[in-house]
Amino acid sequence: QVQLVESGGGLVQAGGSLRLSCAASGRTFSRYAMGWFRQAPGKEREFVAAESWSGAVTYYADSVKGRFTISRDNAKNAVYLQMNSLKPEDTAVYYCAESNTVVPGMRVAQYAYWGQGTQVTVSS
After folding, report:
1. How many C-beta neighbours within 10 Å does residue 28 have?
2. Can you give the pLDDT at residue 29?
3. Would you tell me which of 56, 86, 92, 104 could form a disulfide with 50, CB atoms 3.0–4.6 Å apart?
4. Taking Cα atoms as reference points, which of 32, 20, 37 lies closest to residue 109?
């Protein structure tokens, strides 16, 4: 049974940084693409970043490009999201997701497993 557990969320001032972590268990982590999504109150869940099984291919939403970095450590079964220059509009619950393929995607439907989410709040 695949389990994903996010951590690292919190309250930060605009311009600050946070690093989210996602610990995966239950199957061979290194075979699958990983993604980060977020959902603000009253809004649909949206794509943030994704990475291929090897880390060689990454995708970012335009809204976070140049500020956020996705990375993974296959030896530790973990994926990370480094978030810099945070803005109030980045406030949301952030979810880690694991695909059933090696190729990263930008759609919710492309991911089979989800974590419980971690709250990120950016104050102005």
Report:
1. 10
2. 81
3. 104
4. 37
